[in-house]
Amino acid sequence: MAHRFRTPGYHPIRKLRVILSGLHAAVVTDFSVAYKVILSIPVLGLSFFFRQWIDASLILLAVGLMLISELFNSAIELLCDFVESQQNEQIRVIKDIAAAAAGLSILVWAAILGIESIRLVQIR
Questions:
Q1: Membrane spanning segments where (predicted)?
Q2: Domains in the chain and their CATH numbers?
Q3: pTM, whole model, 2 decimals?
């Protein structure tokens, strides 16, 4: 019996390439994703530098939540635009709900990043 991970077509490296390709596409094509990643990196780097492991974990969690919601929002918007190029009330509602989810995660991300930035400045 063949192992399910060794079946033709499944390769973990290929899956990782797909993940990185999607993340790259989001960062390159969506400025809202790119600037949030750029703002998060220094704060995350400082928290690791000062060995604030719980803070780093919290920042990673917030960045992950924000990225996941932004990626879903971008994917939903692209899919809606692909399916219906004309103005459509249902599509507008779908996009608004996706944007609201992304917006809430951005608020959480901004609050955590702000609080942790202040804490890291006080540590120095």
A1: 21-50, 56-76, 97-115
A2: 9-123 (1.10.287.3610)
A3: 0.79
